[in-house]
Amino acid sequence: MIYTDSFYGFFFFILIGAALSIIFNKKDRLSTFASFISAAIASIFGIIFSLSVVFGETFDLALPGSSFFNFGFSVDRLSAFFILLISVSVFAVSIYSIGYVREYFGKKNIGYLGFLYNIFILSMILVVSANNAIMFLIVW
Prior knowledge:
It contains 5 helices and 2 strands. By secondary structure, the protein is mostly helical. The chain has one domain. Helix 2 (about 30-55) packs parallel to helix 4 (about 110-130). About 35% of the residues are buried.
């Protein structure tokens, strides 16, 4: 069950990165490291999760209280492949972005950039793992 832990680890680090970048909004350097390092760590969890699903079983997660529409997430081998592509790209972009945003220290709000970056990553993963069309439209 390593893939379930890595799935939850991915969401944990993405949400922590989004929250810390808002908390450290006025400190450019700290919000940069909090958002992009946590996104890089989350992408490692995403790589582990997607490889576990590609070489193993499918992953299903039903949200509680959603019996009528069956809101949840389902990851098969195809969606795990897309999660792998997203996670590898996120890792590379996160490492590159640490140096890239230094040019904007004091000029732009880096905390909001880190928050929106982490939420964008979360939405990309949720889109490819949506269980049905209604859930797909909600996370889109």
